[in-house]
Model the fold of this input.
Amino acid sequence: YAEVFGRNSIDGRGLPLDATVHFGKLYDNAFWDGRQMVFGDGDGEVFERFTRSLSVIGHELTHGVTQHTAGMAYRNQAGALNESMSDVFGALVEQYSKQESAKEASWLIGEGLFTAQVEGSALRSLRAPGTAYDDDVLGKDPQPDSMDSYVRTSADNGGVHINSGIPNRAFYLTADSLGGNAWDAPGRIWYNTLTGGTMPATATFSVFARATAASAVELFGTGSPEHDAVRQAWETVKVKL
Done:
Protein backbone atom coordinates (compact mmCIF):
# COMPACT_ATOMS: atom_id res chain seq x y z
CA TYR A 1 0.00 0.00 0.00
CA ALA A 2 2.73 2.46 0.93
CA GLU A 3 5.17 1.67 -1.88
CA VAL A 4 2.71 1.12 -4.73
CA PHE A 5 -0.27 3.33 -3.87
CA GLY A 6 1.38 5.89 -1.57
CA ARG A 7 -1.09 5.12 1.22
CA ASN A 8 -0.11 6.02 4.80
CA SER A 9 -1.44 3.00 6.68
CA ILE A 10 -5.00 1.68 6.85
CA ASP A 11 -6.72 5.04 7.36
CA GLY A 12 -4.36 7.06 5.17
CA ARG A 13 -3.22 8.98 8.26
CA GLY A 14 -0.67 6.66 9.84
CA LEU A 15 -2.92 4.45 11.97
CA PRO A 16 -0.73 2.01 13.97
CA LEU A 17 -0.82 -1.48 12.42
CA ASP A 18 -1.84 -3.60 15.40
CA ALA A 19 -2.67 -7.29 15.31
CA THR A 20 -3.53 -9.98 17.83
CA VAL A 21 -2.10 -13.45 17.17
CA HIS A 22 -2.76 -16.79 18.92
CA PHE A 23 -6.35 -15.60 19.38
CA GLY A 24 -8.60 -17.99 21.30
CA LYS A 25 -7.90 -21.71 21.45
CA LEU A 26 -7.57 -23.68 18.21
CA TYR A 27 -9.40 -20.79 16.52
CA ASP A 28 -10.12 -21.49 12.85
CA ASN A 29 -10.29 -17.98 11.43
CA ALA A 30 -8.86 -14.48 11.11
CA PHE A 31 -10.79 -11.21 11.12
CA TRP A 32 -10.70 -7.40 11.24
CA ASP A 33 -12.48 -6.16 14.37
CA GLY A 34 -12.82 -2.52 13.34
CA ARG A 35 -9.53 -1.50 14.95
CA GLN A 36 -7.00 -4.27 14.34
CA MET A 37 -6.31 -7.61 12.70
CA VAL A 38 -6.89 -10.82 14.67
CA PHE A 39 -5.49 -14.25 13.78
CA GLY A 40 -6.20 -17.70 15.16
CA ASP A 41 -3.80 -20.64 15.31
CA GLY A 42 -6.10 -23.13 13.62
CA ASP A 43 -7.17 -26.50 15.02
CA GLY A 44 -4.28 -28.45 13.52
CA GLU A 45 -6.70 -30.88 11.89
CA VAL A 46 -8.20 -28.73 9.12
CA PHE A 47 -6.36 -25.41 9.49
CA GLU A 48 -2.81 -24.39 10.30
CA ARG A 49 -2.14 -20.99 11.90
CA PHE A 50 -3.64 -18.18 9.86
CA THR A 51 -0.51 -16.01 9.88
CA ARG A 52 1.10 -18.58 7.55
CA SER A 53 -0.63 -16.88 4.63
CA LEU A 54 0.45 -13.40 3.55
CA SER A 55 -2.64 -13.16 1.35
CA VAL A 56 -4.83 -13.68 4.45
CA ILE A 57 -2.90 -10.99 6.35
CA GLY A 58 -3.37 -8.62 3.40
CA HIS A 59 -7.03 -9.63 3.21
CA GLU A 60 -7.76 -8.67 6.83
CA LEU A 61 -5.75 -5.45 6.57
CA THR A 62 -7.77 -4.46 3.50
CA HIS A 63 -11.03 -4.75 5.46
CA GLY A 64 -9.62 -1.81 7.43
CA VAL A 65 -8.82 0.13 4.26
CA THR A 66 -12.35 -0.48 2.97
CA GLN A 67 -13.79 0.63 6.32
CA HIS A 68 -11.92 3.94 6.03
CA THR A 69 -12.74 4.50 2.34
CA ALA A 70 -15.78 3.08 0.51
CA GLY A 71 -17.23 1.58 3.69
CA MET A 72 -19.12 -1.11 1.80
CA ALA A 73 -21.97 -2.55 3.87
CA TYR A 74 -21.28 -6.14 4.89
CA ARG A 75 -24.27 -7.82 3.25
CA ASN A 76 -25.47 -8.94 -0.17
CA GLN A 77 -23.56 -7.63 -3.22
CA ALA A 78 -21.95 -4.75 -1.30
CA GLY A 79 -20.66 -7.26 1.24
CA ALA A 80 -19.38 -9.53 -1.52
CA LEU A 81 -17.55 -6.52 -2.97
CA ASN A 82 -16.12 -5.81 0.51
CA GLU A 83 -14.84 -9.40 0.62
CA SER A 84 -13.57 -9.17 -2.95
CA MET A 85 -11.57 -6.01 -2.19
CA SER A 86 -9.84 -7.94 0.59
CA ASP A 87 -9.13 -10.90 -1.68
CA VAL A 88 -7.88 -8.70 -4.54
CA PHE A 89 -5.51 -6.63 -2.43
CA GLY A 90 -4.56 -9.64 -0.30
CA ALA A 91 -3.44 -11.34 -3.51
CA LEU A 92 -1.60 -8.18 -4.60
CA VAL A 93 0.22 -7.92 -1.25
CA GLU A 94 1.48 -11.48 -1.72
CA GLN A 95 2.36 -10.99 -5.39
CA TYR A 96 4.25 -7.76 -4.66
CA SER A 97 6.17 -9.43 -1.83
CA LYS A 98 7.20 -12.26 -4.16
CA GLN A 99 7.58 -9.93 -7.17
CA GLU A 100 5.34 -12.25 -9.18
CA SER A 101 3.75 -11.16 -12.43
CA ALA A 102 0.07 -11.78 -13.14
CA LYS A 103 1.05 -14.79 -15.23
CA GLU A 104 3.34 -16.25 -12.54
CA ALA A 105 1.00 -15.80 -9.56
CA SER A 106 -1.14 -18.59 -8.10
CA TRP A 107 -4.12 -16.24 -7.50
CA LEU A 108 -4.97 -18.24 -4.38
CA ILE A 109 -6.12 -16.81 -1.05
CA GLY A 110 -4.99 -18.76 2.00
CA GLU A 111 -2.59 -21.08 0.23
CA GLY A 112 -0.88 -23.27 2.83
CA LEU A 113 -3.58 -22.88 5.49
CA PHE A 114 -5.03 -26.36 5.06
CA THR A 115 -3.38 -29.32 6.74
CA ALA A 116 -2.27 -32.29 4.65
CA GLN A 117 -5.53 -34.04 5.56
CA VAL A 118 -7.63 -31.60 3.51
CA GLU A 119 -8.31 -32.04 -0.20
CA GLY A 120 -7.71 -28.47 -1.24
CA SER A 121 -5.09 -25.91 -2.14
CA ALA A 122 -6.50 -22.74 -0.55
CA LEU A 123 -9.59 -20.95 0.76
CA ARG A 124 -10.41 -19.29 -2.56
CA SER A 125 -9.14 -18.90 -6.12
CA LEU A 126 -9.45 -15.64 -8.03
CA ARG A 127 -8.49 -17.34 -11.28
CA ALA A 128 -11.02 -20.17 -10.96
CA PRO A 129 -13.64 -19.53 -8.25
CA GLY A 130 -15.23 -22.75 -7.06
CA THR A 131 -12.08 -24.88 -7.43
CA ALA A 132 -10.03 -24.07 -4.31
CA TYR A 133 -11.11 -27.17 -2.37
CA ASP A 134 -13.31 -30.26 -2.60
CA ASP A 135 -13.16 -32.11 0.69
CA ASP A 136 -15.27 -34.68 2.55
CA VAL A 137 -15.34 -32.52 5.69
CA LEU A 138 -15.38 -28.99 4.27
CA GLY A 139 -17.44 -29.79 1.20
CA LYS A 140 -16.80 -28.13 -2.15
CA ASP A 141 -15.74 -24.52 -2.71
CA PRO A 142 -19.14 -22.81 -3.29
CA GLN A 143 -17.96 -19.74 -5.19
CA PRO A 144 -19.56 -18.94 -8.58
CA ASP A 145 -17.40 -17.63 -11.42
CA SER A 146 -20.13 -15.57 -13.13
CA MET A 147 -23.60 -14.14 -12.57
CA ASP A 148 -25.01 -17.25 -14.26
CA SER A 149 -24.26 -19.11 -11.01
CA TYR A 150 -24.97 -16.28 -8.53
CA VAL A 151 -26.02 -17.73 -5.16
CA ARG A 152 -29.12 -16.24 -3.54
CA THR A 153 -29.01 -17.04 0.16
CA SER A 154 -29.73 -15.51 3.55
CA ALA A 155 -26.72 -17.31 5.03
CA ASP A 156 -23.28 -15.65 5.24
CA ASN A 157 -24.86 -12.15 5.22
CA GLY A 158 -26.30 -12.87 1.82
CA GLY A 159 -23.36 -14.91 0.54
CA VAL A 160 -20.57 -12.36 0.98
CA HIS A 161 -17.83 -15.04 0.99
CA ILE A 162 -19.54 -16.92 -1.84
CA ASN A 163 -20.52 -14.38 -4.50
CA SER A 164 -17.24 -12.48 -4.07
CA GLY A 165 -15.92 -15.02 -6.57
CA ILE A 166 -17.57 -13.05 -9.37
CA PRO A 167 -15.77 -9.69 -8.87
CA ASN A 168 -12.64 -11.63 -7.90
CA ARG A 169 -12.57 -13.28 -11.31
CA ALA A 170 -13.22 -9.93 -13.02
CA PHE A 171 -10.04 -8.56 -11.44
CA TYR A 172 -8.06 -11.65 -12.38
CA LEU A 173 -9.28 -11.45 -16.00
CA THR A 174 -8.31 -7.77 -16.17
CA ALA A 175 -4.82 -8.51 -14.85
CA ASP A 176 -4.38 -11.58 -17.05
CA SER A 177 -5.42 -9.64 -20.15
CA LEU A 178 -3.01 -6.78 -19.49
CA GLY A 179 -0.09 -8.94 -18.35
CA GLY A 180 2.83 -7.55 -16.37
CA ASN A 181 2.34 -6.92 -12.66
CA ALA A 182 -1.22 -6.95 -11.36
CA TRP A 183 -0.45 -4.21 -8.83
CA ASP A 184 0.33 -1.78 -11.66
CA ALA A 185 -2.57 -0.83 -13.97
CA PRO A 186 -5.21 -3.26 -12.62
CA GLY A 187 -4.32 -2.50 -9.01
CA ARG A 188 -4.36 1.25 -9.64
CA ILE A 189 -7.80 1.02 -11.26
CA TRP A 190 -9.29 -0.98 -8.37
CA TYR A 191 -7.55 1.19 -5.74
CA ASN A 192 -8.78 4.38 -7.38
CA THR A 193 -12.31 2.95 -7.41
CA LEU A 194 -12.15 1.87 -3.76
CA THR A 195 -10.70 5.13 -2.44
CA GLY A 196 -12.15 7.70 -4.84
CA GLY A 197 -14.98 8.76 -2.56
CA THR A 198 -17.82 8.06 -4.99
CA MET A 199 -18.67 4.45 -4.11
CA PRO A 200 -22.00 4.09 -2.25
CA ALA A 201 -21.96 1.83 0.80
CA THR A 202 -24.68 -0.31 -0.79
CA ALA A 203 -22.97 -0.64 -4.18
CA THR A 204 -24.03 -3.50 -6.44
CA PHE A 205 -21.70 -5.40 -8.75
CA SER A 206 -22.92 -3.30 -11.70
CA VAL A 207 -22.31 -0.02 -9.86
CA PHE A 208 -18.79 -1.14 -8.96
CA ALA A 209 -18.11 -2.43 -12.47
CA ARG A 210 -19.09 0.90 -14.02
CA ALA A 211 -16.89 2.68 -11.49
CA THR A 212 -13.86 0.55 -12.42
CA ALA A 213 -14.47 1.33 -16.09
CA ALA A 214 -14.66 5.04 -15.22
CA SER A 215 -11.41 4.76 -13.24
CA ALA A 216 -9.74 3.09 -16.21
CA VAL A 217 -10.84 5.99 -18.42
CA GLU A 218 -9.66 8.54 -15.85
CA LEU A 219 -6.24 6.91 -15.48
CA PHE A 220 -5.57 5.59 -18.98
CA GLY A 221 -8.11 7.06 -21.40
CA THR A 222 -11.24 5.95 -23.25
CA GLY A 223 -10.61 2.93 -25.45
CA SER A 224 -7.20 2.28 -23.89
CA PRO A 225 -6.08 -1.35 -23.45
CA GLU A 226 -6.77 -0.93 -19.73
CA HIS A 227 -10.31 0.34 -20.35
CA ASP A 228 -11.01 -2.46 -22.82
CA ALA A 229 -9.63 -5.11 -20.44
CA VAL A 230 -11.87 -3.93 -17.60
CA ARG A 231 -14.99 -3.88 -19.77
CA GLN A 232 -14.28 -7.31 -21.22
CA ALA A 233 -13.62 -8.79 -17.77
CA TRP A 234 -16.99 -7.70 -16.41
CA GLU A 235 -18.74 -8.86 -19.57
CA THR A 236 -17.11 -12.28 -19.19
CA VAL A 237 -18.49 -12.71 -15.66
CA LYS A 238 -21.91 -11.48 -16.91
CA VAL A 239 -22.03 -8.27 -14.83
CA LYS A 240 -23.81 -5.51 -16.73
CA LEU A 241 -21.89 -2.26 -17.14
